[in-house]
Amino acid sequence: MKSLDIDFLNRQAIPIEMGGLLQKIGEYKGRQDLFQHQTSQVLAALKQTAIIESTESSNRIEGVTVPSKRFKELMAHPSKPKDRSEAEILGYREALSKIHAKPESFPIDEKTILGLHRQIYSRTDVPAGQWKKRDNTIEERLSDGRWITRFVPVSASKTPAYMKELCIRFNRLMDKRQTSPLILIPAFVFDFLCIHPFSDGNGRGALWEKRGND
After folding, report:
1. Are 198 and 205 in contact (CB under 8 A)?
2. How far is residue 188's CA from residue 87's CA, in Å, rounded to a whole number?
3. 22 domain-assigned
4. Is the N or the C terminus of the chain less surrounded, counting Cβ atoms within 10 Å?
5. Cα separation of 21 and 182, whole Å?
6. Do 162 and 113 form a contact (C-beta atoms < 8 A)?
7. What is the pLDDT of residues 74-92, one digit of tens each?
């Protein structure tokens, strides 16, 4: 878990192009505050589009899908889910909507992460909102049918301590304001996925980063 170690970050070289992009993003962030007063309806519509697009893509990456027509129906008129996939999609959408509605109310800590994970599965009977109870491995199936282990995440017994330390490091660096959040956020997500703290839903469990991009 080195991504949020300040010495490690200081040793990383940032391409000139990336430096320019970070500057431009900062400029657009400043303009956004102005647009919120002048074109609030347009921004609200864009936010809803972003929520829908993120819901579809984030769930699809983890193999949770529904037919396109049904997905549009669920986004327009959330109703009782017909199966687990629909339940998880609705749960993710609700969690993401809460983050976008009031991002400042979601501190980056273990309680927040567990709460968002619980929200994703709130419409299912899947045990959620708790760290993994058993060790897991990340495997890949090759074209010839063989399975290989890509990496071994942190053990279940050490996961609570690692997640606590990850949140502490992130908040410490954010408070210092010496490193761009656009660098700290992906570093946090990378370490989060390396820890792989949940038995299921780790990719979507990292949705808290939408808060940092608001």
Report:
1. yes
2. 27
3. no
4. C
5. 10
6. no
7. 888 888 899 999 999 999 8
Rounded Cα distance between 103 and 210, Å, is 9
Tokens of 145: 């049918």
What is the distance between the alpha carbons of residues 132 and 141, in angstroms, rounded to a whole number? Answer: 23
Long-range contacts of residues 123-131, Cβ cutoff 8 Å, at least 24 apart: 123/81, 123/87, 123/88, 123/90, 123/91, 124/84, 124/87, 124/88, 124/91, 126/84, 126/200, 128/198, 128/201, 131/156, 131/159, 131/160, 131/163, 131/197, 131/198
Residue 2 falls within a domain, yes or no?
no
pLDDT in tens, 113-159: 999 999 999 999 988 999 999 999 988 888 999 999 998 999 999 99
Total domain count, the chain: 1
Distance CA 95, CA 198 (A): 17
This prediction has a pTM of: 0.81
pLDDT at 209: 55
